[in-house]
Specification:
Largest interface: A-B, 62 and 60 residues
Strand content of chain B: under 5%
Number of domains of chain A: 2
Largest sheet of chain B: none
CATH topology of the largest domain in chain B: MetI-like fold
CATH topology of the largest domain in chain A: MetI-like fold
Distance between the termini of chain A: 35 Å
CATH superfamily of the largest domain in chain B: MetI-like
Distance between the termini of chain B: 21 Å
Number of strands of chain A: 0
Structural class of chain B: mainly alpha
CATH architecture of the largest domain in chain B: Orthogonal Bundle
Shape of chain A: flat
Number of strands of chain B: 0
Strand content of chain A: under 5%
Order of helices and strands of chain A: HHHHHHHHHHHHHH
Radius of gyration of chain A: 27 Å
Oligomer: heterodimer
Number of helices of chain A: 14
Chain lengths: 366, 291
C-alpha cells in the first residue's frame, strides 16, 4: 500500500505532540488520553491497510480525539494553547481529511450503504468545519464579537427559544408564507394569461426577465410606507419579489411540451383546457418547481430585509438589526441559524413534493 | 422588420401600458391627501385641479413618473458628481463595491469549481454544502458583517464588497462545476487518445466548454452582487450609496428620492447584466460556440 503524504505528516505531528508542551493545565484524564488516542489514530492511518474496518477505527478514534481537543480548550493557562496542542489540531484535521478522502473513494456493493456514505461525507465535512471553528476561535482567543464559537451560538439558541420562535412566527409563518403563496399564485395565473395571448408574451417576457434580475428588495421602504410596519408590508415585498421568477419560469415551462405531443392532443380533438391540464401543465412542472425553489429563498430574504426598514419589535430582520446594534453577535448568529434551517427545510420540502409530482422526469429516473 | 413587429411593438406597448398604469395609480393613491387638504381649506376642488395636484406633490404616496425622472435629472446632471447630494456619487459608491465584490466572487467561484471538479473528496463533501448554502438567506448576514468589521476598524469599500463576494461566488461555483463537467465523454476520450495531460484537457477542452455556463452564472452573480452592495449600505446608517439613499428617503418620507434611487439601481442592474451578455457573445463566438 502506498503511504499517503497526508498520513505521514499527521503521524509525525501526532508523535511530536506526545513530547511538545500543550500548554494545558494537567494532569487530567483528557490531558493524557487525547495525545495517545490521536497517536493511535495516526498509527492506524499510516500502518494499517485501507480496509473498511481500519477506516471505521480511524473515524472513531479521530472523533474521540477531536472531543478531547475541545474539552482541553477549557483548561488552558493564560498563555493559551502551546505548540503541542496545535500539532494535535493539525494532525487531527489531516486525519479527518484522510478519512473523508478514503470514504469518498469507497465503492460499496449495496446501494443503501453507498447512500449512507454519500450522506456521511458532507455531514463529516460540516462537523469538522464546526470543530475547527470552535478550536481556532477559542484557541486563538478571537474576540467573540468578531466570530463567536459554535458552542456559544448553540447555548444562545437553547437559551432563547421563545424569542426565536416569536421572530420565526412573525417573519416566516406570517410574512414570508403569505407573500410566497400570493406571489407564486399570481405569477402562475399571470403566466397562463400571458401564454394565451402571444402579443403579451412577446411584450411582457423580456420585461419579466429584466425585472427578475433587478434589486427588487429596494422596494421594501416603499412597501413599509404603504402598508405600515406590520407583516403585511413584508408580505407585499415578498409578493413582488416572487412574482416575476414564477411568471418567467412558468411561461418557459408552458412552451416546453413537444410539438409531437401537442399534435397528438390535437388529433384527440382536445380543447385548450384539456391540453393545458393534461399535457402542458404537467410538462411545465419542472420549471414551476424551479421557480418555487428560487422563490423559497427569495421570500425569506425579502421578509428579513424588509424588516430593516421598520417593523414591530418582533421578527427575524428586526432582531438581527437590533442585536447587531447592541453587539450581541451570538443572537444574530442564532437568528441566522434559524433562517438557514427554515430555508433549507422549505427547500427540502419543495424538492420532496417535486420528486412526487415530476417522477417521470429524467433526472429522477435511476 | 420582423424584429420591430415581434419585439419592439409588443415590448413598447407593455412599457407604455406600465407607465399609463403608473400615472393612474399615482392619481388614485395621491388623491385622498389632496381631497383632505381641500376639505381642510374648505375650498371645493375640481377634478382637473385634483389630478394636476396629485402629480406635483412634495411627498406623494406614489410619485408620478415625470417627478421621478425630474429628480433623477436634477441629481444626476445638475449637481456636481462630487457632491453628497448627487446620485452619480451614490451610484458610484454602490457600483464600485459591487464590481469589486463581483470580481472577487467570480474568481473565488471559478477556483472553487476547479478544485471540486478535480477532487472527488471535495466534490462529495463540499458540493452538498454549496448547494445547501443557496437555500440560506445569506443576505440576512449583511448588517452583521458590516457592523462587526466596522468594530475592528475595517470600513469603507471592503466590507460591502465582501458581502457581494459572498453572494456572488455561489452561483459562479455551481455554474462552473456544471460547465467544467459539460464536455461529453467522447471528447474526454479523444483527449485521452491524444495523451493529453490534465492541464491540456483543462485548457483546451474543459475551460472553453464551460464558457456559456460561466457567463450565465455571472449574469446572476452581478445582479445579486448589486443587491448585496445595496443591502450592505443599510446598517451603516445612511452614509453613502444607493442603499443609503433608500434608507434616508424612508426616514424622511422622501418618496421621490426613494423612487429615483430605485430606478437608478434598476438601470445599473440592467446595464451590468446586458454588458455581461455582450461580453458573453464575443467570448462564446471566439470559443467556438455555435448558436
Amino acid at each position: 500500500m502506498r503511504r499517503s503524504p497526508l498520513a505521514i505528516l499527521a503521524f509525525v505531528l501526532a508523535a511530536a505532540a506526545l513530547v511538545l508542551p500543550t500548554g494545558a493545565d494537567g494532569p487530567s484524564p483528557v490531558f493524557f488520553a487525547t495525545p495517545a488516542i490521536l497517536f493511535a489514530a495516526a498509527a492506524v492511518a499510516l500502518f494499517v491497510g485501507a480496509s473498511t474496518t481500519s477506516l471505521l477505527t480511524l473515524l472513531v478514534l479521530v472523533h474521540i480525539a477531536a472531543y478531547g481537543l475541545i474539552a482541553l480548550l477549557g483548561s488552558f493557562t493564560v498563555a493559551g494553547p502551546g505548540i503541542g496542542y496545535w500539532c494535535m489540531v493539525v494532525s487531527a484535521w489531516l486525519l479527518a481529511w484522510l478519512a473523508v478522502q478514503r470514504l469518498a473513494a469507497l465503492r460499496l456493493a449495496s446501494a443503501d450503504a453507498q447512500r449512507l456514505v454519500n450522506l456521511a461525507l458532507p455531514v463529516l465535512f460540516g462537523a469538522w468545519l464546526l470543530i475547527l471553528w470552535e478550536i481556532v476561535v477559542r484557541g486563538f482567543g478571537v474576540p467573540t464579537i468578531l466570530l463567536p464559537p459554535p458552542s456559544m451560538i448553540a447555548a444562545r439558541i437553547a437559551g432563547s427559544v421563545p424569542t426565536l420562535w416569536a421572530d420565526f412566527q412573525q417573519t416566516f409563518l406570517k410574512a414570508a408564507i403569505a407573500g410566497y403563496v400570493i406571489g407564486c399564485g399570481s405569477g402562475f395565473l399571470a403566466a397562463i394569461i400571458v401564454d394565451r395571448v402571444p402579443f403579451l408574451r412577446r411584450g411582457l417576457l423580456p420585461i419579466g426577465n429584466l425585472v427578475a434580475a433587478l434589486p427588487v428588495v429596494g422596494i421594501a421602504p416603499i412597501m413599509v410606507m404603504w402598508f405600515g410596519s406590520y407583516w403585511q408590508s413584508k408580505a407585499a415585498v415578498v409578493v413582488i419579489m416572487t412574482f416575476f421568477p414564477m411568471l418567467v419560469n412558468t411561461v418557459a415551462g408552458l412552451a416546453a411540451s413537444g410539438a409531437m405531443e401537442r399534435d397528438l392532443m390535437r388529433t384527440y380533438g382536445s380543447s385548450y383546457g384539456q391540453t393545458l391540464l393534461k399535457l402542458r401543465l404537467p410538462a411545465a412542472m419542472p420549471f414551476i418547481f424551479n421557480a418555487l425553489k428560487i422563490n423559497s429563498t427569495l421570500a425569506l430574504i425579502g421578509a428579513i430585509v424588509a424588516e430593516f426598514f421598520g417593523s414591530p419589535i418582533v421578527g427575524m430582520g428586526f432582531r438581527i438589526s437590533a442585536e447587531v446594534g447592541r453587539m450581541n453577535v451570538d443572537m444574530v448568529w442564532a437568528e441566522i441559524f434559524v433562517a438557514a434551517l427554515a430555508g433549507s427545510l422549505s427547500y427540502g420540502l419543495i424538492s420532496l413534493v417535486e420528486r412526487g409530482v415530476t417522477f417521470w422526469h429524467p433526472s429522477y429516473r435511476s | 422588420m420582423n424584429f420591430v413587429r415581434n419585439s419592439v411593438i409588443p415590448v413598447g406597448t407593455v412599457l407604455i401600458a406600465i407607465v399609463a398604469l403608473w400615472y393612474v395609480f399615482a392619481v388614485i393613491l395621491n388623491a385622498p391627501f389632496e381631497r383632505d387638504q381641500a376639505a381642510r381649506a374648505n375650498t371645493p376642488i375640481t377634478t382637473g385641479q385634483l389630478i394636476a395636484n396629485t402629480m406635483a406633490q412634495e411627498r406623494p404616496v406614489l410619485p408620478a413618473p415625470h417627478q421621478v425622472a425630474a429628480e433623477i435629472r436634477k441629481t444626476v446632471f445638475d449637481i456636481s458628481p462630487t457632491s453628497k447630494r448627487s446620485l452619480v456619487y451614490h451610484g458610484w459608491v454602490t457600483l464600485s463595491s459591487t464590481l469589486l465584490g463581483f470580481a472577487l466572487g467570480t474568481l473565488l467561484g471559478i477556483l472553487l469549481a476547479i478544485a471540486i471538479v478535480h477532487s472527488r473528496t471535495l466534490d462529495k463533501s463540499l458540493m452538498p454544502w454549496i448547494i445547501t448554502s443557496q437555500t440560506v438567506p445569506i443576505l440576512a448576514i449583511a448588517p452583521m458583517v458590516i457592523v462587526v468589521l466596522n468594530a475592528v476598524n475595517i470600513t469603507g469599500l471592503l466590507p460591502k464588497a465582501m458581502i457581494s463576494t459572498y453572494l456572488s461566488f455561489f452561483p459562479v461555483a455551481v455554474g462552473m462545476v456544471k460547465g467544467l463537467r459539460s464536455p461529453e465523454i467522447m471528447h474526454l476520450d479523444l483527449m485521452r487518445t491524444y495523451n493529453a495531460s490534465k492541464m491540456q484537457v483543462f485548457w483546451k477542452l474543459r475551460w472553453p466548454a464551460s464558457m456559456p455556463y460561466l457567463f450565465t452564472s455571472m449574469k446572476i452573480a452581478v445582479a445579486i452582487s448589486l443587491v448585496g452592495a445595496i443591502v450592505g449600505e443599510l446598517p451603516t446608517g445612511a452614509v453613502a450609496g444607493i442603499g443609503a439613499r433608500l434608507l434616508a428617503g424612508s426616514y424622511y418620507g422622501q418618496t421621490v428620492q426613494i423612487w429615483a434611487a430605485l430606478i437608478t439601481a434598476a438601470l445599473m442592474a440592467a446595464v451590468l447584466v446586458s454588458l455581461i451578455g455582450l461580453i458573453a457573445n464575443v467570448v462564446n463566438r471566439r470559443m467556438g460556440v455555435r448558436p
